[in-house]
Amino acid sequence: MGQGELRGVVAMDGPSGTGKSTVARRLADALGAAYLDTGAMYRVVTLAVLRAGVDPADASAVLRCAESTDLRIGTDPTRADVRIGDEDVAAEIRLAPVTQAVSAVSAVPRVRELLVARQRQVVSEARGRSGGIVVEGRDIGTVVVPDAELKVYLTASADARAARRSAQDAAAGRSSTVDATKADVERRDRLDSTRAASPLRPAVDAVEVDTTELDIPGVLDRLLGMVRERGLDHAVAGR
């Protein structure tokens, strides 16, 4: 990837179903920037844990599994490149077993330390190649890149998030109901916001955007405006 418009890091946090992944990818693509889905990294480790028959509540065993997993993740926003070794697991990590176990795995402090170090390495390398990167997750602005040039925290009502997640599942051929999805969304919110290590919360200097009544283009326009208001795009900086 060559030099894009974005200069620096956009840290995008928020719970599931706020449109975070879709918007982060589109923002990175619009700015010619790299993109990192940190949640996918925790899902890969979770998949490895499940495949190994490890109890997600066994922190020591989960850490050993994380350390031995050959996790590979791309930074091209136009395609999901997530692998264990040479195996493409981009679809499998979105299935129900991983979704149900990922909060427990991601709550293990040593696993978070391991993956945060890897995430910071990816960010550093991407900035060296393209000048900017959009990073999404649940602790980007608070832990992974606390000095990010722009921090955004997306929110939405539980009902809206459940409806979006159900629609995504249906589009991907996964069976779900809105009620079941809402229960899972609220369960993950509770687990992610109360864990001891890097709980889900907005950074003190994050801009909060409620996406309940906004569509994806509307959110994207707002974020592009923030990037340009802060002079983080080369087009503006070069004038």
Automatic annotation (TrEMBL):
Organism, scientific name: Actinokineospora auranticolor
Question: What name appears for this protein in its UniProt entry?
Answer: Cytidylate kinase
Question: Which is an annotated GO molecular function term of this record?
Answer: CMP kinase activity
Residue ranges with Basic and acidic residues bias = 181-193
What are the start and end residues of every segment in region (Disordered)?
A: 167-197
Q: What Pfam families would the database entry show?
A: Cytidylate_kin
Is Kinase among the key words of this record? yes
Its EC number is 2.7.4.25
Database matches in CDD domains: CMPK
Q: Which gene encodes it?
A: cmk
